[in-house]
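Entry:
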Amino acid sequence: MPEGTGVGYGAASSINLRGLGSDATLTLLNGHRLAYNFAFQAIDISSIPFEAIDRIEVVADGSSALYGSDAVAGVANILLRRDYDGLKASARLGGSTDGGNVQQQYGLLAGQRWGDGGLTIAGEFGRTTPIIAAQRSYSEDRAPGLYLSPFIKRYSLLASAHQALSDHLSFAMDALYNWRSSDTQYAFNERGDVEAYGSKAAFTSRSFVLAPSLTWALPGNWQVDLSGMIGFDRSRYAFNTLYNGVSLLQQIGCYCNKARSIELGADGNLFDLPGGAAKLAIGGGYRINKFHGYRTDGSQDIRASQDAYFAYGEVSLPLVGPDLQIGGIRRLDLTGALRYEDYPGVDKVVTPKLGLIYAPVADLDIKASWGKSFRAPTLYQQFNQVFVNIYNVATLGGSGFPAGSTAMLVSGGNRDLKPERANSWSATFDLHPVALEGFRLEVSYFNVRYRDRIVRPIQYASQSLSNPLYADFVSVSPSASDIEAALANADVFQNVAGGVFDPDRIVAIVNNGNINVARQSLKGVDLSTRYAFDTVDAGAFVLTGEASYLRSKQVTAPAQPVTQLAGTLFNPPKFRGRAGVSWTRDALGASLFANHTGALRDARRASAAKISATLSFDMSLRYTPRAEHGPFQGTDVVLGVQNMFNKKPPLIWTNYVFDAPYDSTNYSAVGRFVSLSLTKSW
């Protein structure tokens, strides 16, 4: 169970595989890239109407050789319903029993299929009220005035069409529009009165994508595809700091992204092998991402773009097939892929991938893969403003310097950043006994070595000159030319030391801008099992189980110590599992699932605290009348209860009243959530 979701700025949701970050997971819509969301290389999946989704295919393996940048942890391809005939309306109402989080979601799906084409249109409206700290017993005193989850309102509209233009030529088009607003707030002191002393934030996001494609069918089982995409994502924000009902500071801006791409590819059979036809896929293309980050007060105005040219090839070689009847080798397939990407001004990257599928018998498949992946630096990481601040040396931890000495702290963007790179390999055992129909067990081992990760290397600026771990990023007794170069590169300069700036008093330059320096490694095991069987009188049952074990660590800089990630606060737990049973009989259905989140360690203080493992339960009841005529035809009613026993998130130590008193990465304030869904199809 490698997948997870993360919630970003403005209530956006993104897919985060392996806990490597949403920007290390490539998310596609029907195989198309989308414009990035906010300042990160992540995709907002909440913009897609739920009823329009057919399925999500997840490849939890480094896949840059096939898909390019961002596919370090893997790829999630959201596939849309292609052929839907009829009309479907849905409504879902729900809320947390402790208060807040009242959700309304209404959807409409309409489709028409004709002989050589089809059209599907989906629309959705959603509204969710906030969860206020006062509505939870564990936060009403510790974080008064805080929204534990935001107020959200959103609209989305999607259209997907395809049409045969001739016997060999077909056209397809996907279009998606989304609008979303969200609001959140927090207080600055224990009174909890946001208007008296607090902050409010409002976000508005609009996104659009148009992705057309043409497919030519050629002789010899070959086809040629020409596809394109144009899209944008404009995430606007407004932060307002209040004191006694008066606005002290207002900051309004936008993180605006645009994207365009075009790709030409071909695939088909090469020649016959003992196990089947050898296949080849080749192609290439161009894409461009544009980013404009600005604030209306003039404190930020970033305009940047990045071109990317790419070419790829993939070959599939089925060496042995079942028809050969070779003992101990029922199936043997080899695959290989190679991709070249040119990011002008950044780097040229070549990424290979090798794969193997070996089936000794009909009951077992053994799969293995090895490959290299990369993630190009974001435009924000490269082109964010460079800040140069002058401090008294004591402020940065310096001692023993002459009186009046100052130090220069450099932070912000870095136009010389290079791609993050990773090596990964995995092995999977897929057991599906022929004698036990409906049973499947998959066990996978994965190993990822991620290097050149982009970080700000100095965690605590106040220790810059005193902690030897930061020595590699401090230049002591800098020359006049070094000081002049740093000042010339500054977009924003501030003399925090006070008095008249004197470059002769600078005794050190501290470099804390973005840099390719961190290393991260992770390895673990994923387990997935399913057993479906039908009884004569009791109905049909499906037993499922998923579990993952993860170990990961990071070294921020060569001289710094190893930091454990998995199993620590605000990182994935070492162990996570989910198991349950689903039952259907005639018009009735029910399910019960148990969710386990492993223990965590809070290492933020000298004496590490343990956060106990948690166990929660979800259940649902479904009624689907079998009526062939009348008002109940095509109806589906589902009653769902998440976190049945209202398990509370484990509490953690916090410094400020505007911090949630729990790990918001692994837990939420939702608590017990009861929902009723009604669907009607015509």
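The longest strand covers residues 246-273.
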